[in-house]
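Worked problem 6 (solution included).
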Amino acid sequence: MARLESRDRQVQLVDWSAALWAGLAGGAVYFLMNLFVTPAIVGGNAWVQVRLLASIVLGPKVLAPPASFDAAALAVALLVNFAVAILFALFVAWVLHRWGLIVGILGGAALGLALYLIVFYSLTRFFPQFFAMNGRGYLLSHVVFGAVVGGVYEALEVERYEPAAGAAPRRG
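Solution. The predicted structure is:
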């Protein structure tokens, strides 16, 4: 019982290292899904996906045909993809770090759905080319991305605690 009382006066810390790795894992899954799975569901070319991501930095001129391999577009798309994935994973870790694996996966999937809705129903004002990415394949890739981030974070998280604000130090 003393251990339970001790935990009541402590807060669990976010494991930022686990969040970083979760972002990298989720980003890799998301990128690969949008290269191979999404084009299979909605049709199209995998290089269109790369160029769409790269257009955030390079502008819409990178979208001009032909949609073929472009090393600069690929490099920029990877940087954008993993930067956003890591930022998202830091947010997921901050929100979900108090619960276990199942909540991490389901909560991550729900946050992935929220990210999809934010991207496609608000950020398209600034990046109108992303409206073309609205559909089942992208919805699925966002939900899977969130689930992977939440699950990997919870699997890698090292639980650490610190005294809660206002909690008196416990004596012997």
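Discussion: The chain has one domain: 12-157.
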